[in-house]
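User: Some background: our group keeps a shared notebook of sequences we're curious about, and every so often someone picks one and asks for a predicted structure to add to the entry. Today it's my turn. The entry only has the sequence so far, pasted here. Could you supply the structure so I can complete it?
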Amino acid sequence: MHQDEPDPMPEDELEWSTGVNDELDWSVVDEEQLENAALNAYLDAEDEYVPLPSEDSFLILSGDDAGSVVTAPPTGSVVSKTGSAPPRIDRDQALSGSRPIYLVQRGGRYYKFLPRVLVGLHASYGDSLALGAIVNIPSANAQANRNFFALSPVSALRIADPQCYLLDTEVLRLPKVPIKSRGYKNAPYLTDAEAPDWVQRVLDSQRASGANLLLTPGRALDPDDPQRSLDKTYEQGDDVLSRLGRGERVALNLTLPARWLSSTALRNRLLDQIMDQDQFDTLYVRVQWAQGKAFTPPDDAELLAGIKKLANLCADEERCLLLPQTGLTGWYALAHGAAGFGLGVSGTDQAFAEYVFRAGAKGAVERYFEKQLIHTLERNTHNVLARTPGYVRCTCPYCPALFANEPWSHELSALHYLHIMGELTARVQRDSTRNGRHAALRRLVAAAQRFATDLPLNAEQSPKHLDAWGQAL
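Assistant: Of course. Here's the predicted structure to add to the notebook entry:
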């Protein structure tokens, strides 16, 4: 039977090994059977516990139950020598803006290891960042989502994204079949968006998944019919507000093609609407921009200017702006007033990019995130970079096993990335005592620019986004 295109590869095949991207059809991976010397070396490390004095408990940092909270470690177990973990915070404390919010997306692969990353970040930096976890409702059933949230006890925010924008194939550039059969099964509200109880069904699906911050449906805003699209989005948002129960909170969920931020007229219309309608104190904004190289943030000046103005407005109006699925671009937006951002291990979790079909990559691409460059490079380039004067080797929990064993572990490389991005987020907060987060992030970018000078990087490898950020900062 003839096909115009081969079936796209699963979403999380675009992690740290390939360059392909798709939605909602993940492979089933038995992570216990992975033949990975580096990963096994990390997993075989002795269980380590860190005191949580505020609750008379302990966080488990490593071992089979890493990520959990227990009242006491087993006799003879290793208790961390690095001190105590800061108190856990709740949803409302996280949304208060006192520290940046770091949201980690549950992907189709490696998700079992994410609680380790989160608990490690809390133990080291929990006084300087708020942690959150995101699941996509069409990608897993409600019980699986609840189980994932239960494995992340340090996550102050739990978000179950309804991904209703997948219905908007005429507004967004999505795969030819954006919703697979599993998506309709896990998110039955996607089968009939005209049903009279549709908004209620979207809300109930989030509640069933264990979310503690609800989202409005988040249909894509049409730049060719802007006011009607905005009015419909706010109308659905008001409907959601009327259906909230006691203690529930909601974020206005906006899905924007990049034109909404790069076009002055559209951007002004959007910002005016946000400023005039103040019934939502939290915004959850997803922006679809042009597809680029995997793990490389956009350097489009107009888009970055739009993100900056959106973040500025939200900060001025005391709105909590969350930028899911933005990766490094979301981190950059912290300088301009964004409250938090989201990312994960897959390429699609770094950017909500316009879908472009790409054939599967031949062979695995070994990637590594360079903290000093704030940029991802291929391993061969890293090996050259590591021999240059001034290079500082990473001391995160994952790099010792990553570099001491072969073959290359894509899993540990991905966990390293998540840990370092959390560390960079905490550094923005910790250094903000000197003239705020804007100045703190600007200093980090300037240091990366200085380090990049005269490095043996070709045009393809060069961190072009640093120059774009530097100009905007």
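Suggested note for the entry: The first strand starts at residue 48 and ends at 52. Residues 1-16, 18-34 have pLDDT under 50 and may be disordered.
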